């Protein structure tokens, strides 16, 4: 858990945020492990919980796994701007992250991740012959040596809006292309 000093210094807070994001990608119990991803669907919004799989602080990039046939894939291809929202009760921290999404459906990055994932029960999520949201039937499950419809969503972080809830008074900070600054909670 970050020190309370991190909540009073913008540079320390930025480091603590990225440290916590990296921890969330490794720790299944971390509150930020399953943020809500909101994308644009025509004239409206569509939101769903996703699993944060990897974080690259240096590149300011988050990685999420998906089925390439998922509605969010068509949405991100039409409108790559999106938002992630995460809450961590143990920290008392909320994140709103503006991201630019891109999709990997082939290549070494995908193959290496599939090599690890195919041995887990989660592999079935990407092997279904039916797209997400389809009615269930008795369709056969493909063999695990195929990659099915496994894809990576890369979320390039453009801005982070942090809110820390404290009994001594809430704090809020924004980190974006204009820099880092405290704002009214």
UniProtKB/TrEMBL annotation:
> Residue ranges of the Pyridoxamine 5'-phosphate oxidase Alr4036 family FMN-binding domain?
18-98
Matching entries from Pfam families are given as: Pyridox_oxase_2 (PF12766)
Matching entries from SUPFAM superfamilies are given as: FMN-binding split barrel
For this UniProt entry, the molecular function terms from Gene Ontology, in alphabetical order, are:
FMN binding
Q: Which InterPro entries match?
A: Pyridox_Oxase_Alr4036_FMN-bd, Split_barrel_FMN-bd
Name the record gives this protein: Pyridoxamine 5'-phosphate oxidase
What is the originating organism of this protein?
A: Inhella crocodyli
